[in-house]
Amino acid sequence: MDTIFWLFAKTQEVVIMRILTSSDLQTLLDFPSVIDAVETAYQDKGTGQGVIWPMIYHEFISDQADMDIRSGYLKSQHAYGVKLLSWFAENEAKGLPELNGTVTIYDDQTGLPKGVVNAAALTGYRTGAAGAVASRLLANPDATNLLIVGAGAQALYQIMAQLTVLPHISTVTIVDLVAPQKATQLAETLTQQLSEQFLPTIDTHAAVYERLTTQLSHLTVTASDDLENATKTAQVIVTATPSTKAMIQSDWVQPGTHLNTIGADMTGKQEVDETIFKTANSYVDDRQQAAQVGETQNAIRANILQEDQLTEIGDLLATSTQNQWTPNQMTLFDSTGIALQDIAAANLALEKAETLTAGHSIDL
Amino acid sequence: MDTIFWLFAKTQEVVIMRILTSSDLQTLLDFPSVIDAVETAYQDKGTGQGVIWPMIYHEFISDQADMDIRSGYLKSQHAYGVKLLSWFAENEAKGLPELNGTVTIYDDQTGLPKGVVNAAALTGYRTGAAGAVASRLLANPDATNLLIVGAGAQALYQIMAQLTVLPHISTVTIVDLVAPQKATQLAETLTQQLSEQFLPTIDTHAAVYERLTTQLSHLTVTASDDLENATKTAQVIVTATPSTKAMIQSDWVQPGTHLNTIGADMTGKQEVDETIFKTANSYVDDRQQAAQVGETQNAIRANILQEDQLTEIGDLLATSTQNQWTPNQMTLFDSTGIALQDIAAANLALEKAETLTAGHSIDL
């Protein structure tokens, strides 16, 4: 091999990879776009255009530190990739984030890496979007009362995503059974936080921007410790807690209510009394995963459901994206989290960053 | 939640991640260190300190484009991570590298990402090091004649790694049955390329630097198209080709010879006549993987070996790292590539980069 030719060939091969940090994502992602991207990802799973590869899980310290690797291929976006997300409970005491990780996205035409995205920062968006896709499809489109159970890190994202798809929500009730003071604190600052964190990235010329601005300015936000009463008056309910026993009793839930159960993602987790699966039309993001680690696991263990009876939301979306709500039917979406959400949201951020030449670009 | 506290908490959480490009690796990695790191990784696998998680493979276009995801945990280095490597044959015509990918490394004490490393650039080092670990353990330490079969991208790395561990090699013979002119061209420029590419990163005060400088200046390099004769005169043989049928016949191989078969990493690949496994003491990097996709697959198919009889090199290294050569015994190491090699090499590069504040550091 001629040395000069060899060196020349090497210098020709420019591989540009983009890095998107937490603060890049704050300026690049807007909920209307992320919700659409996650809807497409679910739909692609339903049509076979989205493929999930086996998940890898490792626990470093029992109930204290673990990690998982999720990967997949979103053909409609010409993107495949891998996410590694770790959780170290002791980090909080060290002044470090508990969740850390990256999503790396590759181009299916060349195999070149498109970029690396902060996975922890992406998680709020893609998980908020999951609940919003389900509510847009299944909830009463005229719903006025939203109940959020759990005032943790997910709450802000879940509420903003729900407001984005439910234009008539005028009352948000926040319940946190473990730390009621967190619900009170969140209620006090909610509209300010939502406005500051999520409105700036929405196109000011889009109708949704004006509508959300108005909706936020008129929003009534209340903290409550009466979960029974809050459940009875809600038309849309989001649970986002690490609970391991049912908090919501099924006879509290009114006909026509839609629930998004976000918290359950491990064996032993539960947020809602499993008998709700007897009457609610239920949907999952991934059949096998929901049966093992989702809210659905409890209904399966109680023999109320069988794994092969579960319907993936992607199968429904593959048929129609039109709202399916009927007045007397309860619906439930069990979100356990799939790689295609992360790939869709990360790819969206990377494409927006390319247009705006945002983030760090590195010739790998 | 108090907004001020929340903002303060966010700004405290600095997560620094380092990116190492192909040219960073060229200035950071030296073969003596990479060989030691890969030896430790194999040893860790033998003692259970190194864990490999299931491999994920996807083919985009049959025989034209694929990718795999390999991951694992190297406890001795407090590092775990994931590598995604893609191969797109059509890239060469597009002026793009055929191999692309990244290795991402995380700290097992916090879950924080340590860095992202160009996986394609790492591959030459970690694969060269694999063969060198085996030769240091199994080959005649006084060997003077090295045969390399295959003059492709791996050849430079394999030769330099062998010279690093075999101080008496004075003759290198290069055979390429498919493209003999590549062997001729490589032979002409070999010592210059090795000196320019690999000597600058070795500590000039280390004994190995002076020895390699001298060894390279006296090296006789020959291209040959007579594989039978080249095999008969070699004491150490490295095969690094994409061959799918045996090139080396077992009766050409002399007693006391050590072989590293590097090429086979997919079903249907073969470089050496499988009857060699009847007489050679053979070792593999990973039992299951070698049995399925390594050189070993052919001996298993021919009923010369059974999977449960295979010995991992890590099991041998866990007992002793002393050279095991005996004059009349042929030995063979079947290298298929495991995530622990990539994690070891990437982690080494990241730690050296931290000391030298090299690469790009990004607050993720």
TrEMBL record, chains A, B:
InterPro entries assigned to the protein according to its UniProt record, in alphabetical order: NAD(P)-bd_dom_sf, ODC_Mu_crystall, ODC_N
GO cellular component terms, semicolon-separated: cytoplasm
Top-level taxon in the UniProt lineage: Bacteria
Name listed for the protein in its UniProt record: Ornithine cyclodeaminase
Lineage: Bacteria, Bacillati, Bacillota, Bacilli, Lactobacillales
